[in-house]
Structure formats: C-alpha cells, structure tokens
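Anyone able to model this chain together with zinc ion?
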Amino acid sequence: MLVAPSILSADFGKLNEEIKAICDGGCDLIHVDVMDGHFVPNMTIGPVVVGPVAKAATKPLDIHLMVEDNSFFIDLYAPLKPEYISFHIESEKHPHRVIQKLRGLGIKPAIVLNPHSTPESIEYLLEDLDMVLLMSVNPGFGGQKFIPSVIEKAAKLKELINKRNPNCLIEVDGGVNDKNIHDLKEAGVDVVVAGSYVYGSSDYSKAIKSLQV
Ligand code: DX5
Ligand code: ZN
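re: yes, here you go
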C-alpha cells in the first residue's frame, strides 16, 4: 500500500519541517488538497504556498482539486510538475477533455468520486486514467469519520479496472487509519491518503509504516 499524507492536517506555521518529516518518514506521495470555497465549503492553499511545498518535497506531489473550474487550477499547478492531479467528476462537464489536457502536460490524470458517485459512472474513462480516487468522507475538511461503504465501492471499481485498465490505481481519501487499512487492502486499494492519522501522531514515520501494509 502506498501512503500519501495530506498536508491539510500539517502545522502550517512550520510547513517546511512538516514536509521534510513525512518525506524522511518514508511516505510515497504528498497529498495536497486544493479547495476553492465553491465546490466545497472551505478554502485551502494556492500556488504561492504549494510552490515552496514542491521545493521542500523529496517525494512526488498528488494534487487533489476540489474546485469548480478544473482547467484554471490545472494551469496554476502544472508548472510545479506534480505526479498526479485529480479532479472531481461531479464538477466537470467534459472530463475526457480534462484528462487529455493533463496528459498533454505530462501529468498523470486521476478522477475523484464523492461518496454518492458510482464507479460505473466513469467506466468509459478508465482506460484513459492512471488513478481513481474514492472519497471516504465528504470533501472539504480533514479529521472526519470514515464512510465504510467505500470498501464495497472499491471492490466494485477493482472489477471494472481489471476489465478496462489493470494499470489504473485506486486511491482512498478520508478517515483512513490503522483500523480500516486492512479492509482497504483486501478490497484492492493501492494508495491511501492520511491527514489527521499521520499528522496527529507523535511519530510520523511509525504512522506511515503502519499503513504500508
Ligand atoms: C478532505 C481531503 C482529505 C483530508 C483527509 O476533503 O480531501 O485529503 O485531508 O484528512 P483525514 O485523513 O484527516 O480524513
Ligand atoms: Zn484529499
């Protein structure tokens, strides 16, 4: 299991140290939550902050857009050369066009599904994707409770992925901890995001390793 700590739960007063600590602690990716105050009822950080994060990082960035205007935000973050940019299917009228745009920029495209969205809704996009991100909380805030139905959804998505594009990864985001990690693994999940579980612990490295099952 790959682990992507979410910096949403980091101490922004000492962000450089917080980034270094998860990289040295053995994380696989750095999850960056971008919110616009419209698609979700919260706002986070812009490129002025994510730029220095990218500089401090020794692991690739996994940027999660929770915004209405995906194309605008992709243009803002593409210069930082993230490994993945994921966008919500619920906020995009032309997902295939956005995927092509990301490919053209050399960024791996990923689509995010909110808790109510079905894997079948993106079946015909799977062959063009590098990853699907399943939300296991309602997007907008860290520290929420895990929604268990995501486990069944991940297993269903895995079947579709095996049929359409076995190289596509499944990522789960929200409320992930050492209690649900084994069920997620069993359902076929490849990557987990963990914000409060990692940054709320006294030993980041130990927390990260406990999820690398
Ligand atoms: C929620 C974000 C998550 C959040 C996860 O909108 O997408 O990435 O930081 O935080 P935890 O792991 O605390 O649920
Ligand atoms: Zn996220």
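Residues 2-211 form a domain with the TIM Barrel fold (CATH 3.20.20.70).
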